[in-house]
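=== How it folds ===
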Amino acid sequence: MDIKQLRFLVALDETRHFGQAAERCHVTQPTLSMRLRNLEEELGVELVRRGQRFEGFTAAGQRVLAWARSLLAAEAGLRAEAAACRGQMVGTLRLGVVPLAGFDPMELIGDFAAAHPQLRFQLFALSSEEILERLGRNQLDLGLSYLERLDREHFAALELAETRMGLLHDSRRFAFAEEALSWQTVAALPLGLLTSEMHFRQSIDHGLRSVGLSPSPWLETDAVHQLLQAVGRGLCCSILPLRHGLGELPAQLALTPIANAQTLAPLGLIMRRGAPRSPLAEACFDLARREAQPIDGLDQAIASGD
């Protein structure tokens, strides 16, 4: 077994196609197929379901794939550690971000890139639970997520922002005289929302229930761009962070604050405490901590776990 075979396996999972996986790994398709069969023979289990094309992984293949990802992450961490020992900060920083985070992740990435020009970046849109799970497995270096129920024995965190909410609407169809809308006004509108397992959606549901209302969305989706498409066509309204980090919105769209509307927990930058821990994660976390504006004096206490 060698590291290339594990890369082939992960590439096949990400592309779901033998030819595309081979192209990504810069080998021929027969070479990739042969090396995967060699891996199966060495492990004594079938990993890949084959027909005329790729048909998925076996149950054993899924379990081996999880280990392959962990080993590749460990190899990347080892190389980053060796570079750090040489006084270099190189490699790829893997950052998980919750959808509709009330903080623009590009602010962080811009700061990291300015301080460490040789870094590369991978961004993953994940739920808060998935971010913690991948941090725990060393499949992410840092997470931008909510700090509710964070296990501070295993994770360090830096509070970045309190996420306040507003109603995104097409001003040509929906017009409001108020500077800040009530939950009662919002509940009477056709709403497009993220699905119920998302923390941001749970905060919306909590806000509605706090005034005796039940959430009844017209549209639910796990994709932010679909919410923007529906609102842009005037089909519904949606709820976004006032600092949404989505860039400039179309001219016809307005974002009106909702009174007493914020997420259940503040947003923060999260890093695992346990070893092995990426030197890239440590360097970027320390940079964010130095540059962060204190929020009620809590950021240092949260970061230290006190």
User: Anything to note?
Assistant: The domain at 3-69 is CATH 1.10.10.10 (Arc Repressor Mutant, subunit A). The chain is about 40% helix and 20% strand.
